[in-house]
Amino acid sequence: MKSALRALYVNFSFFVKNEWNEYCEGERIVRELTSNDDEKPSPDKLKRLVYLIGAEPENYQLTYMMIMKRVTDFRYLRHMEKVSFLIFKKKKRYQPSEHVYVQKKKIKGLIVVEYILKYGDHRFVRSCKRDVRHFKKLRGFTYELYNKDFGGGGV
């Protein structure tokens, strides 16, 4: 019951913020895709976002600005995806029953950017090239699982 009330509150607050700030549909979808829940971005919403970026040139800039805001807003980790990993220490593996987990962050916004780069409009590619300095700040990001680095650190 408590989780259902929490979900209702979150959905209501999302609706109020969207209406109050008068976000366009593309901005609303970006906010949903990069929200602070534990779910990965929905493929259907990603497809809808790609369609909107190509079909609504008047809202393209607003949508792009929202994507960049969510990707580069390092002060608020709410736009990040939480991923849990086991900690290793002195070559001794802790058991999951000990609840020794570390929260690593993976930017959900990058999933959105990657999808749009693959399937979206060429304007988005040009815009990302223009703002490449923002992506260069993310070079230090590492995705570690069981002491193995899966990219990012030495790019």
TrEMBL record:
It holds the Pfam family ENTH. InterPro entries: ENTH (IPR013809), ENTH_VHS (IPR008942). It comes from the Eukaryota. It comes from Reticulomyxa filosa. Gene3D superfamilies: 1.25.40.90. Residues 26-145 form the ENTH domain. This is ENTH domain-containing protein.
